[in-house]
Amino acid sequence: DAMTIHFTLCRYKHVFFDCRLGDILDLEFGYFKMELNKVGMEKYSFHYALMAEVIRAELGDDPATLFASFEEVPIAAASMAQVHRARLRSGEEVVVKILYPNLERSVAIDLWLTRRLIGVLRWIFRRVDLRLIYKEAEAPLLLELDLAHEGRATEELAAALAEVDVKVPKVYWE
Predict the structure, then answer these.
(1) Secondary structure (3-state) at 24
(2) Nearest Cα to Cα of residue 11 among 39, 35, 44
Protein backbone atom coordinates (compact mmCIF):
# COMPACT_ATOMS: atom_id res chain seq x y z
CA ASP A 1 0.00 0.00 0.00
CA ALA A 2 1.00 3.67 -0.21
CA MET A 3 2.12 3.85 3.43
CA THR A 4 4.51 0.89 3.12
CA ILE A 5 6.07 2.28 -0.04
CA HIS A 6 6.41 5.71 1.50
CA PHE A 7 7.97 4.56 4.78
CA THR A 8 10.46 2.36 2.96
CA LEU A 9 11.56 5.23 0.75
CA CYS A 10 11.64 7.75 3.60
CA ARG A 11 13.72 5.49 5.77
CA TYR A 12 16.50 5.69 3.23
CA LYS A 13 15.81 9.31 2.25
CA HIS A 14 15.16 8.61 -1.40
CA VAL A 15 14.03 12.08 -2.31
CA PHE A 16 13.14 11.67 -5.96
CA PHE A 17 11.30 8.39 -5.64
CA ASP A 18 9.51 9.47 -2.49
CA CYS A 19 8.49 13.05 -3.18
CA ARG A 20 8.73 13.69 -6.88
CA LEU A 21 7.38 10.35 -7.99
CA GLY A 22 4.75 10.58 -5.27
CA ASP A 23 3.66 13.94 -6.68
CA ILE A 24 3.46 12.51 -10.20
CA LEU A 25 1.47 9.49 -8.99
CA ASP A 26 -0.82 11.77 -7.03
CA LEU A 27 -1.62 13.75 -10.17
CA GLU A 28 -2.74 10.54 -11.78
CA PHE A 29 -4.34 8.66 -8.91
CA GLY A 30 -4.95 11.18 -6.10
CA TYR A 31 -4.72 8.53 -3.40
CA PHE A 32 -1.00 8.44 -2.66
CA LYS A 33 -0.54 11.88 -1.06
CA MET A 34 -3.89 11.79 0.69
CA GLU A 35 -2.79 8.68 2.58
CA LEU A 36 0.70 10.00 3.27
CA ASN A 37 -0.49 13.34 4.62
CA LYS A 38 -2.28 11.51 7.43
CA VAL A 39 1.06 10.61 8.99
CA GLY A 40 2.55 14.09 9.51
CA MET A 41 6.11 15.41 9.60
CA GLU A 42 7.45 12.84 12.07
CA LYS A 43 7.92 10.47 9.16
CA TYR A 44 10.68 12.73 7.89
CA SER A 45 12.50 14.26 10.83
CA PHE A 46 15.90 13.08 11.97
CA HIS A 47 17.03 12.81 15.58
CA TYR A 48 18.55 15.99 17.00
CA ALA A 49 22.00 14.41 17.54
CA LEU A 50 22.34 13.77 13.80
CA MET A 51 21.26 17.28 12.95
CA ALA A 52 23.69 18.73 15.51
CA GLU A 53 26.48 16.83 13.71
CA VAL A 54 25.46 18.48 10.44
CA ILE A 55 25.55 21.91 12.10
CA ARG A 56 29.02 21.20 13.54
CA ALA A 57 30.29 20.11 10.13
CA GLU A 58 28.81 23.12 8.32
CA LEU A 59 29.24 25.90 10.90
CA GLY A 60 32.18 24.64 12.93
CA ASP A 61 30.59 24.36 16.37
CA ASP A 62 27.70 22.96 18.41
CA PRO A 63 24.28 24.60 18.22
CA ALA A 64 24.51 25.35 21.96
CA THR A 65 27.64 27.42 21.32
CA LEU A 66 26.48 29.09 18.11
CA PHE A 67 23.03 30.09 19.36
CA ALA A 68 21.65 31.51 22.59
CA SER A 69 19.00 28.79 22.32
CA PHE A 70 18.20 26.05 19.83
CA GLU A 71 15.07 23.88 19.92
CA GLU A 72 15.87 20.23 19.48
CA VAL A 73 12.45 19.32 18.10
CA PRO A 74 11.94 20.56 14.54
CA ILE A 75 8.98 22.81 13.76
CA ALA A 76 8.89 21.49 10.19
CA ALA A 77 10.36 18.56 8.32
CA ALA A 78 10.17 17.34 4.76
CA SER A 79 12.05 15.00 2.48
CA MET A 80 15.26 17.05 2.21
CA ALA A 81 15.55 19.17 5.35
CA GLN A 82 14.08 20.10 8.68
CA VAL A 83 13.68 23.45 10.40
CA HIS A 84 14.42 24.33 14.02
CA ARG A 85 13.63 27.46 16.02
CA ALA A 86 16.65 29.22 17.48
CA ARG A 87 17.68 32.49 19.07
CA LEU A 88 20.84 34.27 18.01
CA ARG A 89 23.26 35.58 20.62
CA SER A 90 22.02 39.07 19.60
CA GLY A 91 18.52 38.03 20.77
CA GLU A 92 16.88 37.74 17.36
CA GLU A 93 14.57 34.78 16.86
CA VAL A 94 15.37 32.77 13.74
CA VAL A 95 14.69 29.44 12.13
CA VAL A 96 17.52 27.20 10.97
CA LYS A 97 17.04 24.99 7.93
CA ILE A 98 19.27 21.90 7.97
CA LEU A 99 19.69 19.51 5.07
CA TYR A 100 19.67 15.87 6.08
CA PRO A 101 22.96 13.98 6.42
CA ASN A 102 24.21 12.28 3.23
CA LEU A 103 21.44 13.91 1.23
CA GLU A 104 23.64 14.61 -1.80
CA ARG A 105 24.52 10.93 -2.05
CA SER A 106 20.91 9.87 -1.69
CA VAL A 107 19.81 12.29 -4.42
CA ALA A 108 22.61 11.10 -6.73
CA ILE A 109 21.50 7.49 -6.24
CA ASP A 110 17.86 8.43 -6.85
CA LEU A 111 18.71 10.25 -10.06
CA TRP A 112 20.87 7.38 -11.29
CA LEU A 113 18.10 4.85 -10.56
CA THR A 114 15.54 7.07 -12.23
CA ARG A 115 17.64 7.37 -15.40
CA ARG A 116 17.94 3.57 -15.51
CA LEU A 117 14.21 3.13 -14.93
CA ILE A 118 13.41 5.61 -17.70
CA GLY A 119 15.74 3.67 -19.99
CA VAL A 120 13.50 0.64 -19.53
CA LEU A 121 10.15 2.45 -19.45
CA ARG A 122 10.77 4.39 -22.65
CA TRP A 123 10.43 1.12 -24.55
CA ILE A 124 6.97 0.63 -23.02
CA PHE A 125 5.75 4.25 -23.25
CA ARG A 126 7.04 5.11 -26.71
CA ARG A 127 4.68 8.04 -27.28
CA VAL A 128 6.08 10.04 -24.34
CA ASP A 129 9.71 11.06 -24.04
CA LEU A 130 10.24 10.31 -20.35
CA ARG A 131 13.73 11.79 -20.55
CA LEU A 132 12.17 15.24 -20.95
CA ILE A 133 10.10 14.75 -17.80
CA TYR A 134 13.24 13.62 -15.97
CA LYS A 135 15.17 16.71 -17.10
CA GLU A 136 12.34 18.96 -15.90
CA ALA A 137 12.43 17.31 -12.45
CA GLU A 138 16.22 17.01 -12.11
CA ALA A 139 17.25 20.69 -12.28
CA PRO A 140 14.96 22.01 -9.52
CA LEU A 141 15.75 19.00 -7.34
CA LEU A 142 19.49 19.72 -7.54
CA LEU A 143 18.88 23.40 -6.78
CA GLU A 144 17.10 22.41 -3.56
CA LEU A 145 20.41 21.03 -2.29
CA ASP A 146 21.96 24.51 -2.55
CA LEU A 147 20.91 26.54 0.49
CA ALA A 148 23.03 29.49 -0.68
CA HIS A 149 20.95 29.60 -3.86
CA GLU A 150 17.79 29.45 -1.76
CA GLY A 151 19.07 32.31 0.41
CA ARG A 152 19.83 34.49 -2.61
CA ALA A 153 16.42 33.71 -4.08
CA THR A 154 14.79 34.66 -0.77
CA GLU A 155 16.61 37.98 -0.74
CA GLU A 156 15.58 38.66 -4.35
CA LEU A 157 11.97 37.88 -3.46
CA ALA A 158 12.14 40.21 -0.45
CA ALA A 159 13.47 43.03 -2.63
CA ALA A 160 10.79 42.46 -5.27
CA LEU A 161 7.98 42.46 -2.69
CA ALA A 162 9.28 45.28 -0.48
CA GLU A 163 7.02 47.90 -2.07
CA VAL A 164 3.84 45.90 -1.45
CA ASP A 165 4.62 45.30 2.23
CA VAL A 166 4.89 41.51 2.06
CA LYS A 167 7.03 40.05 4.82
CA VAL A 168 9.80 37.72 3.69
CA PRO A 169 12.18 36.12 6.22
CA LYS A 170 15.61 37.73 6.57
CA VAL A 171 18.55 35.54 5.55
CA TYR A 172 21.51 35.39 7.96
CA TRP A 173 24.70 34.52 6.12
CA GLU A 174 26.90 33.96 9.18
Answers:
(1) helix
(2) 44
How deeply is 35 buried, as exposed, middle or buried, from its count of CB atoms within 10 A (0-12, 13-18, 19+)? middle
Q: Which long-range contacts (CB under 8 A, 24 or more apart) does 5-13 make?
A: 6/32, 6/35, 6/36, 6/39, 6/43, 7/43, 10/43, 10/44, 10/79, 12/106, 13/79, 13/100, 13/102, 13/103, 13/106
- Amino acid (one-letter) located at 85: R
Residue at 30: amino acid letter: G
CA distance 44 to 10: 7
Strand partners, 98: 82
Give me the phi and psi of 128, to 5 degrees please.
Answer: -115, 130
Degrees (nearest 5) of the Cα angle 46, 51, 56? 170
Low-confidence ranges of the chain (pLDDT < 70): 1-44
* Structural contact between residues 51 and 98, judged by C-beta atoms closer than 8 angstroms: yes
Structure confidence by residue, pLDDT tens digits, 43-78: 567 888 889 999 999 999 999 999 999 999 998 887
**Residue 121 one-letter amino acid:** L
Residue 79: per-residue pLDDT: 77
**The pLDDT of residue 28:** 46
